[in-house]
Amino acid sequence: MVLAEKGMSAMTIEEITDRADVGRGSFYYHFEAKDELICLMIEKLLSELNAVMRDACAPHTEIDSVLDAMIGAHINFFSSNWENFVLFHQGSADLMLDENLEGIETPFEDYLKCIEELIVKKVPQPISKERLQRLACAIAGFISGYYSFASVATEDDNVDKWFMSLRSAFVTSLARFIKEAMP
Known about the structure:
This protein has 183 residues and is mainly α. Helix content is 75%, strand content 0%. α5 packs antiparallel against α9. The protein is globular, with a radius of gyration of 18 Å. The relative contact order is 0.12. The model has no long low-confidence stretch (mean pLDDT 83).
């Protein structure tokens, strides 16, 4: 909650411990620094999201339905806890900085590999590793960017309803992108 309210760099250990109703000593017993806690949170978040995506996509055989399930997995995952999306978004933005959190890239790489695995199983032709990586980045960016846009653009608190209203167009666009990207 503190991270969602203040942001990764602005939140303090004192705010974290106050909100958790624990002493600073308890914090330092478990973590050396705030960055270690953030990295652990991101790792847990993306591990859970990967599991949700795998479960959601498992029964589908066509790329369109896999993409729809993947989007649905993100919507369901983030709608139940908005703070998760804030952490996901801030974590991915941190990767762009010259001095990002040490270790933060590994959970995001695993997240992209999960997307790659889900896509490669459903396309009829082999895709080169480089192209598959670019597709995974594009899909992740598309989902994240669109969800972020929906949260800013909607006037009510129901981001997921607004996002879901455009889901069909989103899936169609992604499926077309993938089909056109294949050799």
